[in-house]
Amino acid sequence: xxxxxxxDGSAAPLSEDRILACLAGYFPQTxxxxxxxxxxxxxxxxxxxxxxxxxxxxxxxxxxxxxxxxPEDTGYKALAVNVSDLAGCGARPLGFTLCLGLxxxxxxxxxxxxxxxxxxxxxxxRMALAGGDLSRSKSLHISITVWGETADPGHFLVRxxxxxxxxxxxxxxxxxxxxGLAQLEAQGRQALEAWPAACAAHLRPAPxxxxxxxxxxxxYNARPPALMDLSxxxxxxxxxxxxxxxxxxxxxxxxxxxxxxxxxxxxWCDAGQGWEGIDSTLALTGWEDKRRVVVxxxxxKGEMLVAQEDNGQQLLGFIEADRKGAKxxxxxxxxxLVTNLDxxxxxxxxxxxxxxxxxxxxxxxxxxxxxxxxxxxxLHRCQLSxxxxxxxxxxxxxxxxxxxxxxxxxxxTSRPWLMSSVERRTEHAGQTTITLTGLHALFGKAxxxxxxxxxxxxxxxxxxxxxxxxxxxxxxxxxHLKHTLAAIGPPPTLRLLPDHANGVK
Length: 505
What we know:
The protein has 15 helices and 18 strands. Strands 9, 10, 11, 12, 15 and 16 form a six-stranded antiparallel beta sheet that branches. Strands 5-8-6-7 form a four-stranded mixed beta sheet. Strands 1-2 form a two-stranded antiparallel ribbon.
């Protein structure tokens, strides 16, 4: 590192040697990933696998403000945002270089605090500081280059690996750091008292390295998932890749003002299932341009409007009163959607409800079938447990869909409903017979259920090639699950199922 001496305004100059001595107290000279560390013209890296490299600038009054960033926060975030880029590639961090442009107000106390925050991130991920540069600057400039190794040769993740029909997962709460930024800009450090989690998400973001490595390993035996760091905003990244999206907005102050402006505007149209909607555009804080926003509303039933809580935020219905009669009061619940799709409002309303149905399936898997009841760093154990739960869930879903084709029933209601009958099973000449007692209170319903299931199974037996084998039946069952449950492709023609179902008395 080479630079002219600097002064902090005191009698003792803030020299390069003093800065390097301070830095050495936080970052060791040697590291397992370095063949040659700081002090020479170049550092020499040791790596057994392909390296992922990323660089970021962290500039005062552009990326951070000293008014609410402590020196520890500045050092922490400057390195953390770079490590997050490695996590987005599914790489394990190894080391970094640090370039600093230091203004005259920087003193040793500030540097010690700055290096301590940066060392906290480096220690969490066992990273080496390999070198860098020092220079004078009118404002504080921080430039960091990081590198890391892939989980396995050839197994790294890219942004462009997504395909139509893929499920989008997000690790961490979307928009929390943005809320923290807004509050810190408005209130300064005082915002930490009222918004501790949001402010912490902005000041000290947590790189999702473990999640990136796990997802990279998940691609060993399957198509690797696409992965990216969302620090630039998920909608912006999706738009850059021409990927369609449909998100529900939180009812923030600006969104509520938008609803109020549209409340008495004409042009509300049918959005299906009791909802009505209206098209509009909106530019929220942090958006570079206006985006298409669809406001949906549905009249609430009942004499009293009750406030609801959504992650600590109150959701209140708006009130429409008949001033002439002074009797009719209608409350509405609202959903505000932002999208880059050009679908009509009726289709968007159905897509929104379909998304809610998909979330119900994940909730059922996690809370009723135990998918969220195991955690381990052993990827193979996780895969085995997840596949076992998925297999049971799929078979039970098939059973329930055959029993009640017209309605979707979750496990919490379907298990007691389908297991409430009293039956006797007998086997004769290679055939199994189930006999229900006619005295059971739910005899009629149980008989209908089993008739529907029997009809579909008989259909598959007839369709399977003779001699009947396990593979042929399994293929038919999988096709039914794929088309009927997941709605992938056109559904197969299964005439016997609705016919038999309608014929059961």
